[in-house]
Amino acid sequence: MRGVCLSLSLLVCVWLLPCAESQNPAYNDTYTECTDGYQWDAESQHCKDIDECESIPEACKGEMKCFNHYGGYLCLPRSASVLTAPEPAGQSEHSLPVEGNEAFNPCPPGYEAQGESCLDVDECALDLHDCQPSQQCVNTAGAFTCQCPDGYSKIGLECVDIDECRYRYCQHRCVNVPGSFSCQCEPGFQLAGNNRSCIDVNECDMGAPCQQRCYNTYGTFLCRCDQGYELGPDGYSCNDIDECGYSSYLCQFQCVNEPGKFSCICPEGYQLLGSRLCQDVNECETSEHQCSDGQTCVNIHGGYQCVDTNRCTDPYVQVSDNRCVCPVVKPACRELPFSIVHRYMSISSDRSVPSDIFQIQATSVYPGAYNTFRIRSGDAGGDFYIRQINNISAMLVLARPITGPREYVLDLEMVSINPLMSYQTSSALRLSIHVGPYPF
Questions:
Q1: For residues 434 and 422, is the Cβ–Cβ distance under 8 A?
Q2: Quick one: which of 3, 84, 259, 390 could link to 19 by a disulfide (CB 3.0–4.6 Å)?
Q3: What is the pLDDT of residues 197-237, one digit of tens each?
């Protein structure tokens, strides 16, 4: 044999050169011995190469592939290719047999001839690869590789999805999808620019359904109402608070509910003192009365009265404003108080009892005189009584609850007795009491 010449590339490409010529008999035609790897062919009268890949069972083991060559065979990886050299000149067509399934290609494996150049064969485009369905074929120079798509890992021959959620890539919630994953945030948060972290959402700037006021908090928001309103059951709407229904003591007279607040009003003849109390309007001082020149304006709770300037009746004569005197020279005056002084006052309804309402004070005191006080007239119902304080003063007391509007005219009499001089006289205070219609 002239030898075996091997040229190995990265993919184990083997060039088999014919190194043994057919054996000719040295002396005569009956000589039939051949060298190892050849056998005598009686028909062609030449030594013929033995194909060990067919004649030897399991010539190559494991993942190795059998390649026959002249006078022997090779066990090479399955990715290796064998290219036979052209037959030497003068050799018969039967002297150098070649495998029937091996075509002559002047280019390395993975390339094909185009003119005088060798162009790469795209096995992926021509579907000449053996990649699994779950793999991706990637063409390379003279070959191809099988790769797993992003998000998959190779287990055995198959590409299996990687569960990225096991590695806690997301701040809140991770959702695994084939070949990838996505991050989701809890309500009240949104994904940051890195698509993994979660940042708080300011719902107040994004149209939160708060009716009045909105306060952003971490991960949520709170609705609040203005003063005078309360938050509804839905947590968003604001309902007016009826302050008047909570208490009957907010206003002295009457409470009026308004949206978000309340106000107090007073009856006619009164005005608000501050925001809740009612104060009587003194029409006599503000000149809002309509009394004539011959009348005197008397202020009462909630209004006024016009009384005659001279209220003295016979046999009394007027001696000064509001004071009448009964002259002793008149016989009719003997059984009457010597003087009557007119006074006016106003009290509210439903006043607590007993209640001191007016104090009587003697203006003239005579030595040795003993003074007593009584209600001479005007208290037929027994609503009042006199409580004497000392010799010169007494207190008119309201004995029973009264309601208005109503007016009492009481004659409160002071009787003076001097036992040493056997002298007795009396004077009266005509007190007009107006009871207002309201309890203030």
A1: no
A2: 3
A3: 999 999 999 999 999 999 999 999 999 999 999 999 999 99
Using the structure block, give the residue that is written with the tokens 């695994």: 176
Which candidate, 426, 424, 414, places its Cα nearest to that of 361?
414
Give the global pTM.
0.52
The span from the CA of 435 to the CA of 53, in Å, is: 138
* Strand ranges (E), 86-184: 111-114, 117-120, 136-140, 143-147, 152-155, 158-161, 173-177, 180-184
Chain segment 110-165, per-residue pLDDT in tens: 898 888 788 999 989 988 888 888 888 999 988 999 989 988 988 888 899 989 89
Copy the structure tokens of residue 246.
């909570």
Q: If you search the block for the tokens 């107040």, which residue do you land on?
A: 204
Give the tokens for residue 169.
Answer: 């890539």
CA end-to-end span of the chain:
142
CB atoms inside a 10 Å sphere around CB 141: 10
Residue 80: count other Cβ atoms within 10 Å of its Cβ.
18
DSSP, collapsed to helix, strand or coil, labels residue 260 as coil
